[in-house]
Write a structure and sequence with these properties.
With 132 residues, the chain is mainly beta. It has one helix at residues 71-77; strands at 12-19, 25-31, 59-61, 68-70, 79-85, 92-98, 102-104, 107-113, 120-124. Bound molecules: zinc ion (2 copies). One zinc ion binds next to loops.
């Protein structure tokens, strides 16, 4: 399967760029789901009155036609796409995994397997850094 890197952050619900051990790395992203109704918008969290996305909302909403779908339905269809260099065997490849954090060495993470050595690689939740 061919993965396409997002050209704009607006297309993504999630994007991260990580350094791993031994010069490995992982770039991971999740595309927003295309609206099944109007096919013009991409579903995201509804926008609150103050202009920010309502992260606690139980639905995703199309910004164009306001069509809504529940979180569970949307999130079960989304995939995390990863471009990586394996920290164990240095293999460079691409992978996909479910949009759901699983336990990885005691930490919630998106977990995928190296296509060459089969070792599991986790993309853990990023710790908040202080702003510059
Ligand atoms: Zn729509
Ligand atoms: Zn590997």
């Amino acid at each position: 399967m061919e993965l396409k890197k997002p050209s704009s952050m607006d297309e993504c619900l999630y994007f991260t760029n990580r350094s791993l051990d031994n010069e490995g790395y992982a770039v991971a992203w999740v595309y927003r789901k295309e609206c099944p109704k109007c096919k013009k918008g991409r579903l995201g969290k509804p926008i609150k009155k103050d202009g920010k996305a309502d992260k606690k909302a139980v639905v995703y909403e199309c910004p164009k036609c306001k069509y809504q779908e529940p979180n569970d339905k949307v999130e079960s269809e989304l995939k995390v796409e990863v471009e990586y260099q394996c920290p164990y065997c240095s293999f460079g490849g691409r992978a996909t995994t479910e949009y759901k954090r699983n336990n990885f060495e005691g930490v919630p993470a998106y977990v995928f397997e190296c296509g060459k050595c089969g070792k599991k690689i986790g993309i853990t939740k990023k710790l908040k850094k202080t702003k510059k």
